Amino acid sequence: MINGLRSAIYPVADLAKAKQWYTEVFGVTPYFDQPFYVGYNVGGFELGLLPDGGTPGRAGAMVYWGVRDIEAEVARIVALGAAIHHPITDVGEGIRTVELADPFGNLLCLIDNPHFDLTAVR
Hints:
Layout: E1 7-12, H1 15-26, E2 32-34, E3 37-42, E4 45-51, E5 64-66, H2 70-79, E6 83-92, E7 95-101, E8 107-112
């Protein structure tokens, strides 16, 4: 049985710059910080930075991080150096998504889903 999202791992070429950028984006410091991997706890889920983890790509898996005010988060993260890869889109029933390109070649996707039931997270 699959129990839901646990980790999103992003390959980065410059671990120090990526660590600084993601610390600012998510507003948390790493709980695990080693030269071979940096791990963050973001709302109970793992964001991992993998140095020299291959070539980042925008065509691979897409991980959506939940937000409550998608416009404000997009503005904040773009101001930190991300670019809009695909604009905020209403995908139906009040659910909106956006794809941002981080400065390291990965997609940082956000979702504002009013139907998400936090109590269902295990």
